[in-house]
Design goal:
With 194 residues, the chain is mainly α. It contains 9 helices and 3 strands, in the order H-H-H-H-E-E-E-H-H-H-H-H.
Length: 194
C-alpha cells in the first residue's frame, strides 16, 4: 500500500501533474486503496470534516489556489460521506462535494472502471469524491480558460446558473479565507479579476 509519506506517492503525484486531467483521474483512481475512507452515513457528521480536509489537501497537492477552490466548492455543496441527494431532473448529487451523477458515465469512461464502482466511490470515498470534483473543475478550467467560469461550470452548463453559483462560492470563499482570497498564492490569471 502506498502511504502519504512514501516516495512512490510523491513520484506518482509528480507524474499526475504532468498529464492532462483525463489521465490524471485514471491514475488517481488506480492509486486509491479500496476501501478508502469508507462510510455509510445518512446525514452530515462533524467527524467527516477531518477526512474531507485531508482529501482536499491531498488533491490540491500544495497548490493553495486549488485547495481554496475545493474548499469553496465543499462549503457551497455541503454534502457528506454517504450522501445521495435526488434532484428534480432524476440525477443525484453524491458525496461531500455533491458530484452530480451525470458525471458517472464520463468518469467511468475516463478511468476504465464500471459505473457502479464510480457511483459507489463518489458516495462513500471522500478522497475519490474530491479527486472527481478536482477533475471536473480543472476540466472546466482547461475548456474555458477562465477560473470563475470553471467554478460555474462545476455546477451547470447554463450561463445564468453558473453566474449565480459562482457568486455563492465567492461568498463561501470570503467567509472561510477573507476578502483577499488569492493574495500571495499562484493562481490562474483570470482569478485576479474577481
Amino acid at each position: 500500500m502506498i502511504t502519504s509519506a512514501s516516495p512512490q506517492l510523491a513520484a506518482a503525484r509528480r507524474t499526475i501533474v504532468s498529464f492532462g486531467p483525463e489521465i490524471a483521474l485514471a491514475i488517481a483512481v488506480a492509486l486509491i486503496p479500496l476501501p478508502s475512507f469508507e462510510a455509510r452515513a445518512a446525514k452530515p457528521r462533524s467527524s467527516d470534516e477531518p477526512i474531507v480536509a485531508a482529501c482536499i489537501a491531498r488533491s490540491a497537492g500544495g497548490r493553495a489556489w486549488l485547495g481554496k477552490t475545493l474548499w469553496g466548492l465543499r462549503d457551497q455543496e455541503g454534502g457528506w460521506i454517504g450522501a445521495e441527494i435526488a434532484n428534480g431532473d432524476g440525477s443525484h448529487d453524491l458525496g461531500p462535494l455533491q458530484v452530480n451523477s451525470w458525471w458517472v458515465p464520463r468518469l467511468a469512461a475516463v478511468s476504465g472502471r464500471p459505473e457502479r464502482h464510480i457511483r459507489h466511490w463518489l458516495k462513500q470515498d471522500a478522497c475519490f469524491n474530491v479527486e472527481a470534483a478536482r477533475w471536473i473543475f480543472l476540466s472546466g478550467l482547461a475548456t474555458t480558460g477562465d477560473y470563475w467560469k470553471a467554478v460555474g461550470v462545476y455546477h451547470s452548463p447554463t450561463g445564468w446558473r453558473q453566474r449565480r453559483y459562482t457568486a455563492s462560492v465567492v461568498k463561501h470563499l470570503r467567509r472561510r479565507f477573507g476578502s483577499n482570497l488569492f493574495v500571495g498564492t499562484a493562481r490562474p490569471a483570470s482569478a485576479a479579476t474577481q
